[in-house]
Amino acid sequence: MRGVVMVAPGDVRVEDRPDPVIQEPTDAIIEVAAACVCGSDLWPYRGVDDADHTPMGHEYVGTVVEIGGAVENVKVGDFVVGSFFASDNTCDICRAGYQSRCVHAEPMGAIGTQAQFARIPLADGTLVATPGRPAADLIPSLLAASDVLGTGWFAAVAAEVGPGKTVVVVGDGAVGLSGVLAAKELGAERIIAMSRHEDRQALAREFGATDIVAERGHDGVAVVRELTGGLGAHCVIEAVGTQESMMQAVRSTRPGGHVGYVGVSHDVELPGLELFFSAVHLHGGPAPVRRFLPHLIELIWNRTIDPGKVFDLTLPLERAAEAYRAMDERTATKVLLTL
Amino acid sequence: MRGVVMVAPGDVRVEDRPDPVIQEPTDAIIEVAAACVCGSDLWPYRGVDDADHTPMGHEYVGTVVEIGGAVENVKVGDFVVGSFFASDNTCDICRAGYQSRCVHAEPMGAIGTQAQFARIPLADGTLVATPGRPAADLIPSLLAASDVLGTGWFAAVAAEVGPGKTVVVVGDGAVGLSGVLAAKELGAERIIAMSRHEDRQALAREFGATDIVAERGHDGVAVVRELTGGLGAHCVIEAVGTQESMMQAVRSTRPGGHVGYVGVSHDVELPGLELFFSAVHLHGGPAPVRRFLPHLIELIWNRTIDPGKVFDLTLPLERAAEAYRAMDERTATKVLLTL
User: Fold this and answer.
1) H or E segment to which residue A246 belongs
2) DSSP letter string over A130-141?
3) InterPro entries attached here (chains A, B) (predicted)?
4) CA–CA separation, A81 vs A308, rounded Å?
5) Residue B267 pLDDT
6) Interface predicted TM-score of the whole assembly (ipTM), two decimals
7) Mean pLDDT for chain B overall
8) Chain A residues touching B246 at Cβ < 8 A
9) Domain extent for B202
10) In what order do the strands lie in the sheet with A166-170?
11) Nearest CB to A277; choose among B231, B275, B286
12) Count of domains in chain A?
C-alpha cells in the first residue's frame, strides 16, 4: 500500500509500505477513506521531536475490511471513526472517561494512518460505526471528530463550559476553532476567540465566537479582563501548548474558574506560586476523544454541526509533502488527505 | 494590648501594640479567645519570607466587642470564627465560593491576630457567629476551623473526595491531618495517609486513615500505585507545598483523578509535559475557608468532629516564642495560644 513516511525532519514522502495484517484477535483492518495532517505532526517536521523513516498520521475514518476473531462491535463493511489512541474502553480508566490513558492504550501515531490501510488495535473499544455509509460531504466532519473536534470538545468540557459562562479560547488552529464550536454547542453565553488571522477569525465567528481579541500575552490578558468586568473568564480553552499560551490561559481565568488545556505542552514550566494564588482549576492532557465520539457522530450525522469547515485545503495522499508544507507555513489551517 | 511581633526572622516577641479601632463602618473589633501558630508562619521565621517587626497571626476565634455602623450580621457579644482572608461574601468571586480571592479580600496576616484584640475588616462577610457561647473544650476545634480544618476540607473538596473513592493525603501536618478528617466525613472509602511520624500516624488513624505509607517521593508513589491496582488514587490531597510533594501528589493520582493542593507553593515549577500526560485535574490555592465555616461550625457544635486534636501543645500568648520554636523544631504539630 501507499503511505506517508517522514524520512527525517522536514522530509515527508509517500512510499510503498507493507499492507497491514491482523496481529491480535482484537485487531481490525480498515481501508482509510480520509486522513489528515495534525498540528502535532509539525513537531517532528520541525525537528523538535525525532523523525527517522517514521510512518505518519493518527486521524482516520474508513471502512472495515477485516476483523480479528475476537472483534464483536464492528463488522466488515462498517464505516468507522476512531481516534489517536486505541483503547479497550473497558478498564477502570476508560470507564471513567479517560480512554486516551487506557491501561492498554496504543498510540495510532506509531501505526501511521496517512495510508491506504491501517491496523486498528482493540477495535471493539476504539472504533465507533456511523449509522450508515456517510454522504461524501460528511466525511470531513467525521474526520474532524477523530481528533481536532474531539480534542476541542474535551477542552471545553475540561473547562466546564456551560450556559451562562464566558469562555476564552487561546489558539486559533483547528483545535481552538473546534473549541469555539464546542463552547457554542455546550451553551456558553459569550465566546472570546483570541486570533490574529482574519480567515480564522471569520470561521471562529461562524462557529459561535461573540468577540475576537487580536492581542496576545500580557495585552491579550488585559483585554480579556476588561471584557469580563476585571475578573477574568469562567472558562478558558488552551489549544496551543507553549509557555506563553498556558500563562495567557491561566491569567485570563477568574479565581475558581477552569482552564481546559489540550495543546501538547512543549518546554512549559508552570510557576507554582502564581498557579496557587490564581485559584483556577487546571485540567487537560491527551483528549479522550473516544468518550465523545458517539455524541459527536450523532451531531454531525444530524447536520447540527459542521466541524469539517476547519479543513481549508484538500489534497490527494500522494501530495502529502505539500500538505505538511502548507501547515508548516500556515497557508492552511488544516489539510485533508483524500484516498 | 499585648501582641506577637516578629522583629526579624527567628526573633518572635510579645510586645505592647496599639489597641485596634474601627477604621471603616464595615469593621468589627473582637477580643481574641484563642489564636495559634500556622505552618506558613514558619516561612518568615526561617527567613524564606521577609519579617521586620511584623505583627503575626491570621487564625482566630473570639468575642465581638465593637462594630462599625454598617455591620448587620454580627453584634457585640457574639462569639465568632473568621478565617485568614477578610471577604465581603457578596462579590461574584465570593458567591462562586472563592472568598479567599474576594475582589475586596484583605489578608488577616497583615493585621496580626496573635494578640488580645483584632480588627476584622468586612465583618459581615468574614465572621460567622457560633450558636451560643462555646464550651471551653470546643474552642480548639473552632479555632482549627479558622484555618487548618477549613484548608484541609477545601483540599478534599478540590480533590473531589466522595463515597467509593480512594484518597491519598501527602503531608502529615495539621492541614494534612485535617484533610484526612475531611476525607472521612466526605465519605471516602479508603484513606492513605503519607506520614513518617508515629504520633501523627496515630492521629491520622483516629481521624479516619485506613492505610499509612511511610515512604516518600518515588518510593511513596510506588507504594500508592501498588495499593491502588497500579492505577493511582482517585483523589490526592497535597498539604506541603514543595516540588517533591507536588510531584508526589501528581504521580500518585490516576489519569482523570483529582489533586487538591493547599500547601503554599514555594519554588515549585510544574513540568508541563508530565502534567499534560498525567491527565489529572489540578485545583487548589488559598482555601476559601469562609465557604465551609457554617457547615464546619455545625459539625463541631454537634460534636460530630473533633479537629481540635491537631493542637498538641497549648501555651499562653506571652510564651509565643516557645510556640514558634516548637513548630520549627517539629516537637509540636500545632500550637494553640491562650489569652
Assistant:
1) helix A243-251
2) -SSSPPGGGHHH
3) ADH-like_C, ADH-like_N, ADH_Zn_CS, ER, GroES-like_sf, NAD(P)-bd_dom_sf
4) 14
5) 87
6) 0.96
7) 97
8) 272
9) 149-284
10) A211-213, A190-194, A166-170, A233-238, A253-261, A281-284, B281-284, B253-261, B233-238, B166-170, B190-194, B211-213
11) B286
12) 2
